[in-house]
Amino acid sequence: MFSKLPRSALPRTVARSRFISSTPSRNSDALFVHRDTPYNNPKIAFEFDAENMKRAQDIISHYPPQYKKAAVIPLLDLGQRQNKGWTSISVMNYVANLLGMPPMRVYEVATFYTMFNREPIGEHFVQVCTTTPCQLRGSTEILNTVCEHLGGIKPGQTTKDGKFTVVEVECQGACSNAPMIVVGDDFYEDLTPKSTKTILDAFKKGMKPKPGPQSGRQTSENSAGLTTLTKKPYGPGEFCQPEFQ
Amino acid sequence: MLRLVSTVSRPTSTGLLGKVVSTHTPQCSSAFSATCSRGADITLTVDGKEVTVPQGSALIQACEAAGATIPRFCYHDRLAIAGNCRMCLVEVERSPKPVASCAMPAMPGSKVFTNTPLVHEAREGVMEFLLANHPLDCPVCDQGGECDLQDQSMRYGSDRTRFHEITGKRAVENKDMGPLVKTSMNRCIQCTRCVRFANEVAGIEELGTTGRGNDMQIGTYVEKTMDSEMSGNIVDLCPVGALTSKPYAFHARPWELKNTESVDVMDAVGSNIRIDSRGVQVMRIQPKTNDDVNEEWINDKTRYAFDGLRFQRLTTPLVKQGDRFVPATWENALTAIAEGLTASGAKGDEIQAVAGHLADTEAMVALKDLVNRLGSDNLGLDQPGGNRPPIHGVDVRSNYLFNATIPGVEKADAILLVGTNPRHEAAVLNSRIRKSWLHTPVEIALIGERADTAYGYDYLGDSAKALADFVAGKGAFADKFKNAKNPLIIVGSALSEHPDGKSMYNDLANFVEKNKERLVTPTWNGFSVLQRVASRPAAYDVGFVPSQRASTTKPKFVYLLNADELDPASIPQDAFVVYHGHHGDLGAQLADVCLPATAYTEKATTWVNTEGRTQMGRAAVSAPGVAREDWKIVRALSEVIGTPLPYDDVLALRDRLWEISPTLVRYDTTEATSVDVALAGLKLIASQTAGAKAVGTPLRRPITNFYQTDPISRASVTMAQCTRAFVKGENYGFSEVGKGSQAAFA
């Protein structure tokens, strides 16, 4: 639109600052090709253990036999859980073999969904939401706190002791309790830098803090106190004609 | 991500993939429904013009029918519909937004506009996003001049960019797809045509899309070459310069090339090709669409073996003096042959002619006439047992032709492959079987050596016993075959060369005759022989086979017409040998006199494919050196020997072809053999092979290296590289998963 204007109509500096935009580099995303490494190559064996195998069979049984490849996402998730939180090439190949589908179809799924980690992660996987509602409620500060508190790592990196991996993620659907982080499978909400540190410290000590809002709220009720339902609501039949009471 | 059917678990319902359009049956031209929608045509208006198209057609097809050109990148009428490039947007009345015409079924009564400001603006928007990440390397890009993106950006592209990314354009690393396909993935626009082709047609399910959004890329995720004999087609499919031909890289621009439409001779399918030449050199070979033969695919040998035409050529007549070949003039060479013939003292059947893989029909007719005039019936073929009359005989055409026809394969609902691996013997035909296997509940079984065929099959065994069991009705597949409406038996050409060939042909002939009400009907002939050599159907048609008496005669004079596959031991030491051909291959080594002839790109000759379809090849370039057209050499020789042949020009020779068989001059059609004749032919096989006992030798595939089967492909550098990469598997196989002993080219 602006390009149609004569060049002199716009001050050059303005034009430049207006036109140039950049997308953040995605450090958390690994390459979309596989390279064999000592820790991730098809020669490393992977197999579901007995318990997971039972679950896998149960998942597969939910689908008609000719469409059993529909179970690829749950099985990859199962594999990721068993494989210390990341989906190695062996996990993908094993799932492909189990479901009788070409390995490439599994690679496509595993690279498409960002929740499949294709590189090893730390013991605790810390995902900091930085989408707009969280950002408005101070998620940048939370992210900085997490990174600094874990020894100055950057999003996408793992601490030296291998205990924590931090990534930035998009909306987790807990906007009413923003800002929030996810550690493992649990949401920690209503965070302040202080409560964030407390949570991380607890994890460092091997404890598991209570998930949910850290502000004392039960769920996502009004933090300033109730504005409705302040007194007992009227019961059935109240204010009705006597014959209905 | 594309959801495609896997080889391992084929869905029993047929609705998963859009039916690939098969234009040979107009009722089936539906791009959406898997079953043919019959009869129902719909009428709609495109740019004020009424068009009638079959129900289920895509809107883009209706627009094409109305003569409106729709720009497109991802849509291809032989592949499933992806609808991801959005270039084909059109305006439809009462639709709030422009619609992608490839993914929209044509609706009766709808009003479509393809030339409105809204449409143009929408397409310009799409183009702007495509170009945002497309590198500006048209001057050094091999697709330049035939690039869809380049062409369409002339109309829909903006002359300046509105996107300035600090980090620059998207950069994607190139993939190693082997010696045939060169990749430049920065140029990729993610149309996924290559992925769809690889998965649907070629049957290599290693190609896919990884990642998402802006970072989506085409590749194999793990390091792998594209191990398919059809991989060259993705170069044609690619609408941009992301996939280009490696051997052709930086060799020519499309506007410099002369196009000649011709016929391929690397296998017996007779794929229609377009030879692109510059000066005296063939620069590349591309497919020419022919729905009855090759659709629009050709295999890699067809496409890339032509560089063998530059090496090892015979350019001048050679006469052996002592242990050396000495260049000679045509006159000297022909005189030397005449003298050799006299000196050898060959009389009658002692004069032998052997026709090879690349012998054209005209030359074979001329040579047969010459040899017959010299009183001999000793006409051999360069295959195992080629000096004996073939088991199936040559009296009835349906005994050695692919009677079901190549498009007919898609009608079959049960296919038995006997002693053949169509993937290597007729790769394009094989992709039809795969198409049928993906979209219909066809049942396939194989008797012969196990092979990776790109579709699933029941393996019945590898010897005559397996066939006998099948004929006796044993096994699950025999039951399925019995219940099939259009059963098809594909008999490999290697069967007639096999020690147990007689007994197996006997079993087959009796079986077909017994089940003639399903196998041989006026509309369907399910007994089909798949020839693997371009010249063979024509050789059988003209009767280039020895008589029983001649086959036992020890030859004293041998004329090798393009024969390079024969066993050197089959030629007596003291015989005088003439080699007539275009490459200094095996045959030339055995010869006393070599006569330089033309290769298939240098002559306009007749070729008959495995269906019996006569097609005319055309000369694209001139012959090297003093090489001459094949039939002219034979004609000249006949003069020198003193038994001149009665034709002086090619038209007279084609009259002779017509005399032998009118089908040889009826081009581009197949003639079905009538039921009575076909049955009589089967009876003939049965009676001639009666009482043959099987010894139980296992069937072996006749082609062990798909990439090198004839003198041209053996001289080709590209094919040698393919052999190294795919057959021997050097430096590749980095992440080998799920590759058992059935590796495609093992």
TrEMBL record, chain A:
The keyword Metal-binding applies. GO terms for molecular function: 2 iron, 2 sulfur cluster binding; metal ion binding; NADH dehydrogenase (ubiquinone) activity; oxidoreductase activity. [2Fe-2S] cluster binds at C129, C134, C171, C175. InterPro entries: NuoE-like (IPR002023), NuoE_dom (IPR042128), NuoE_N (IPR041921), Thioredoxin-like_sf (IPR036249). Its cofactor is [2Fe-2S] cluster. GO terms for cellular component: catalytic complex; membrane protein complex; mitochondrial inner membrane. NCBIfam families: nuoE_fam. Keywords: 2Fe-2S, Iron, Iron-sulfur, Metal-binding, NAD, Translocase. It holds the Pfam family 2Fe-2S_thioredx. Residues 215-230 have a biased composition (Polar residues). Binds 1 [2Fe-2S] cluster. Transmembrane segments: none annotated. This is Uncharacterized protein. Belongs to the complex I 24 kDa subunit family. The keyword Iron applies. One of its GO terms (biological process) is mitochondrial electron transport, NADH to ubiquinone. Residues 204-245 are annotated as: Disordered. It comes from the Eukaryota.
Automatic annotation (TrEMBL), chain B:
One of its GO terms (cellular component) is membrane. GO terms for molecular function: 4 iron, 4 sulfur cluster binding; metal ion binding; NADH dehydrogenase (ubiquinone) activity; oxidoreductase activity, acting on NAD(P)H. Pfam families: Fer2_4 (PF13510), Fer4_NDSU1 (PF22151), Fer4_Nqo3 (PF22117), Molybdopterin (PF00384), NADH-G_4Fe-4S_3 (PF10588), NADH_dhqG_C (PF09326). Keywords: 4Fe-4S, Iron, Iron-sulfur, Metal-binding, NAD, Translocase. InterPro entries: 2Fe-2S_ferredoxin-like_sf (IPR036010), 2Fe-2S_ferredoxin-type (IPR001041), Mopterin_OxRdtase (IPR006656), Mopterin_OxRdtase_4Fe-4S_dom (IPR006963), NADH_UbQ_OxRdtase_75kDa_su_CS (IPR000283), NADH_UbQ_OxRdtase_ferredoxin (IPR054351), NADH_UbQ_OxRdtase_Gsu (IPR010228), NADH_UbQ_OxRdtase_Gsu_4Fe4S-bd (IPR019574). Its cofactor is [2Fe-2S] cluster; [4Fe-4S] cluster. Residues 40-118 form the 2Fe-2S ferredoxin-type domain. The keyword Phosphoprotein does not apply. Residues 257-313 form the 4Fe-4S Mo/W bis-MGD-type domain. The keyword Iron applies. GO terms for biological process: ATP synthesis coupled electron transport. It comes from the Eukaryota. Residues 118-157 form the 4Fe-4S His(Cys)3-ligated-type domain. SUPFAM superfamilies: 2Fe-2S ferredoxin-like, 4Fe-4S ferredoxins, Formate dehydrogenase/DMSO reductase, domains 1-3. Belongs to the complex I 75 kDa subunit family. This is NADH-ubiquinone oxidoreductase 78 kDa subunit, mitochondrial.
